[in-house]
Design goal:
Elongation Factor Tu (Ef-tu), domain 3, alpha+beta, Rossmann fold, 23 strands, 441 residues
Length: 441
């Protein structure tokens, strides 16, 4: 069965957790004991109805404050599709949590309170979703019951957000008016909004097409482990295990091993369930090759004429997740796919104001939750793709050498020496700097 990963985002108290609770409740995705527990908690607080937000706000601090702090993951399924939900925080100070929850999502739901309209946080979350390469966006205009299910209010918010979205790299946006509290347009179509002719949220989630989102052309297989049982039954067995990042590998295909550049053919592709004729992302497999080649963890299997860039420096967008700021000259460990190297921040190009998309080229550091463009130099070459080509081989994290904490998440823009000409991304950013970008109050 097909799997869809999606995340929720929005401003504080837009109803993200209530929406997820309603989705789980109306689709019969919760157990009776879970429902009984939140009913007891709701009665103890004096609520007149069940607070479905309690299904996702699991931390005590969250329940006491009525907000979401941690990323809550929930799983449910319908006859058409399986789902993994990442309910992410709305507070500005928890932007790093939102990045973590949305980093693997196929679709992002941005909630907007119908009473408040498009806010700065709406802009922030939409920008981060597109920065992370999420291909599908749902703008859920929530709390329509509090504005009398007004079509004019919905249309005004849709037009406002659409004007902003034209400045972002997003091609699939669905606008849905709903009331998470009462279930309007969440699982079933709302009778209170006959003017809306689009799908309910669950229908859209079940039917949005994600098959073309995966890169099935650029074959990349980072080697994670060398399997050598050395038993009597498997005396000469040598398998290269890992998860396929992109592309499709087939038995008999000619492949190149990087960084050595050696060429061979795939002898077999195996899984715990048996041998496969072909495999693509996100399969975890073991590959056996026809020739014995010196391969170790961190190497990559790819096509002879379609290879990643081998480079020991890169330009990247960085979301900073640590209290201690990132500054030029900072030294970290960089983990990319299955390889970890040492890295130094060579330059901070600029910091982005995610509410206006303006670049601050005078910035000398990135603080907690800041996003900016940096240039890194590594102690050893890595096998890199641009993030817009592959979210796996184009993404990396920075790790503090002393504490081993993850301090930053990066998305590769360009691998190799500094370019002399502007990329398409830079040209777009420059155009945005010159534009008047309205920010709703």
């Amino acid at each position: 069965m097909d799997l869809l990963r999606f995340s929720t985002a929005g401003s504080v108290d837009d109803g993200k957790s209530t929406l997820i609770g309603r989705l789980l409740y109306d689709s019969k995705g919760i157990f009776e004991d879970q429902l009984a527990a939140i009913e007891r908690t709701s009665r103890r607080r004096g609520y007149q109805q069940v607070d479905l937000a309690l299904l996702t706000d699991g931390l005590r601090a969250e329940r006491e404050q009525g907000i979401t702090i941690d990323v809550a993951y929930r799983y449910f399924a319908t006859p058409r599709r399986k789902f993994i939900i990442a309910d992410t925080p709305g507070h500005v100070q928890y932007t790093r949590n939102m990045v973590t929850g949305a980093s693997t999502a196929d679709l992002a739901i941005v909630l907007i309170d119908a009473r408040k309209g498009v806010l700065e946080q709406s802009h922030r979350h939409a920008f981060i979703a597109t920065l992370l390469g999420i291909p599908h966006l749902v703008v859920a205009v929530n709390k329509m019951d509090l504005v009398g299910y007004s079509e004019e209010t919905f249309n005004a918010i849709r037009d406002d957000f659409s004007a902003w979205a034209q400045k972002l790299d997003v091609h699939d946006i669905q606008f849905i008016p709903l009331s998470a509290l009462h279930g309007d347009n969440v699982v079933t179509r709302s009778v209170a909004m006959p003017w809306y002719q689009g799908p309910s949220l669950l229908y859209h989630l079940e039917n949005v097409y994600i098959g073309s989102d995966r890169n099935l052309i650029d074959a990349r297989f980072p080697v994670q482990w060398i399997i050598r049982p050395q038993t009597d039954a498997h005396h000469d067995y040598r398998g290269y295990a890992g998860q396929i990042a992109s592309g499709v590998f087939r038995k008999g295909d000619q492949v190149t091993i990087l960084p050595s550049g050696k060429t061979t053919r795939i002898k077999r592709i195996e899984t715990m369930d048996g041998e496969l004729e072909a495999a693509g992302p996100p399969h975890s497999v073991s590959m056996l090759l026809e020739d014995e080649i010196d391969i170790s963890r961190g190497d990559m299997i790819c096509r002879p004429h379609n290879q990643p860039t081998v480079a020991n420096e890169l330009d990247a967008m960085m979301c900073w997740m640590a209290d201690a700021p990132l500054r030029p000259g900072g030294r970290y460990m960089l983990k990319h796919t299955t390889k970890t190297v040492k890295a130094v921040v060579d330059d901070l190009r600029y910091r982005i104001d995610v509410n206006t998309l303006h670049r601050d080229q005078t910035a000398d550091q990135l603080g907690l939750n800041d996003i900016g463009r940096i240039h890194l130099r590594m102690s050893a070459p890595l096998l890199l793709d641009p993030y817009d080509l592959s979210r796996t081989t184009g993404g990396f994290i920075l790790i503090d050498e002393a504490t081993y904490d993850t301090v930053g998440a990066g998305m590769v823009i360009h691998a190799g020496p500094e370019k002399q000409q502007l990329s398409a991304d830079e040209a777009l950013e420059g155009a945005l700097d010159d534009a008047e970008v309205p920010v709703a109050a």
